[in-house]
């Protein structure tokens, strides 16, 4: 499956971006549940990902989702103890998950450093890969489910999930999940989906708001290489959507997105 051409939507500010993305996500989940009975979404950590989850929690239309028929996965996780406030899961619980009736068996949390794999982050990553493979059906034609939506916060250095520029995890072409050692952004030890796993998703949504993301957005959308700018290498099978605020879009060339969208 080839790369889908990125579509860019620019919102006035990060609050409106979070609210509009929450509305978009609700519709996408309801549509998937209508079509297939269930929906699957991959969550991201970071400021924009958590902002989106908080907006989703605050949206009255969240009740249109059948939370018991939703599978939630993570694109990456910080390999620290389970109750550490730095965990993407801990932050997602606070922003949304503790206030909606999700089925705990469908919330696929990446392992923590005080869990069964202890200090062995590579074994923890392999276990998550096995969980993904178990969830994949024949219709998925591969070792990960065809997620309905996979969200990625874009870091100021163009990292997505825990795939950092020029880092070995960004070069992985076989495994679907890897342990990340020596990440340039703390904490250094992480678990991440790889680019092949990300590209299994039907839709990939990249979120970036704030002026500190403007350079990363223009680099990734301006033709940078995959290893130099992992965000440039993240795309979905049927859609790749960049959801920005004006500040993050400030360095994009004119004409890359419709003016009406901002
Ligand atoms: O470390 C991480 O950072 C990115 C982006 O975070 P942000 O705060 O700059 O928006 C996030 O996507 C990733 O999940 C997280 O682990």
UniProtKB/TrEMBL annotation:
Pathway: Carbohydrate degradation; pentose phosphate pathway; D-ribulose 5-phosphate from D-glucose 6-phosphate (oxidative stage): step 2/3. Its EC number is 3.1.1.31. CDD domains: 6PGL. Transmembrane segments: none annotated. Pfam families: Glucosamine_iso. It catalyses: 6-phospho-D-glucono-1,5-lactone + H2O = 6-phospho-D-gluconate + H(+). Residues 13-242 form the Glucosamine/galactosamine-6-phosphate isomerase domain. Keywords: Hydrolase. The keyword rRNA-binding does not apply. It is an enzyme of class 3 (hydrolase). Hydrolysis of 6-phosphogluconolactone to 6-phosphogluconate. Belongs to the glucosamine/galactosamine-6-phosphate isomerase family. 6-phosphogluconolactonase subfamily. This is 6-phosphogluconolactonase. It comes from Streptomyces nojiriensis.
